Fold:
Amino acid sequence: MSPLPPAATRPRPILLALAYLAFISLGLPDAVLGVAWPSIRETFGLPQAALGAVLSSAAVAYFFSGLLAGRFIGAAGIGTLLAASTGLVTLGVVGYASTPAFALMLAAACLLGFGSGAVDAGLNTYAAQNFGARHMTWLHAAYSTGATLGPVLMTATLTSGGGWRAGYAVIGGVLGLLAVTFTGMRRQWDGGPAPSARTGGEAPVPAASVWATLRRPRVWLQSAIFFFYCGVEVTAGQWSYTVLTEARGLGTVVAGTWVSLYWASLLAGRVLLGLIVERVGTVRLLRLSTLAAVAGALLFALPQVPPALGLSVLGFALAPIFPGMMAETPRRIGAEAAAHAVGFQVSAATLGVALVPSVAGLMGEWLGLAAIAPLLVLVAVLLAVHHEVLVATTS
Structure:
């Protein structure tokens, strides 16, 4: 069971509020691309696999931003990092809305990825060391809130005739307001406790070096789990709409609703499971969740099963995995190496975001869109197997 952080290191309410707003801003644009993609593809005359180029551009920038996040925080503070990074995300989304060419859309994806990566790595490092498993789960519920609202906004814009550019413009406006909020409140955050490694109420633990952290086998195993987890989450979120509309013949509104249900299930799981994670135990909950994720992926892969069932089970099952793994990082890796380990995990997650959906796109081109669902099952199985190996090595 993951204990609550000691009172001395608990953040002020204003810091929690800022963290929740930041995770909402991370999630808001992330789930939109899958819904908008058929329209974007038609606008620019692109093949299905071109979605991988957008995801890869954002992922490369996200990857390097995550690795550099610790230095950014040390140089400027979390408040300034939040303000600047959310500003970059805003510019990226506005770039999506206004780009006249697909090549410029890839440049905008880099801005979005770089901004998101800094926020993600910085806040996950801080939260893993200071917030405890409950708040960590609810922070990722805030991400799911943004991820749920994004497809709803885009679907509403598409069905009303506004087009995908108008959808991104609305989201860019919301993110701009968040960036302004972070700018005005940045000193409130920087006045809080520093994101250094702590053990209870004791003095800060000296940080391990990057290379010392990389020599720990569990770092690599946990990073692999984040790779497979994000591969499942993003592939389901980005490709399910296209699979449902172009392979299974569902309408725009119905398919968009089921995709929103997937993200809503992820949100509901994080809200509800956050209430019990410290009572049930993080490790036990993670083992159950990885197995349930395999079941959800199997249900979605069966055309005769209503897609709403498979997507809702999958979303709910995935809910506690990312925050739970993050919350367990200081215990499994050691507080002295946690900051580096979290950065590596965020980077591995980014690779999963880039590679697995890209492979899904290639399979959709070569074998047909129906091949994407079995790939989802395979990656879910790999996720569950790797987590069981990790549990065996830490039990």
Q: What stands out?
A: DSSP finds 17 helices and no strands in the chain. Residues 262 and 312 are 5 Å apart (CA to CA).
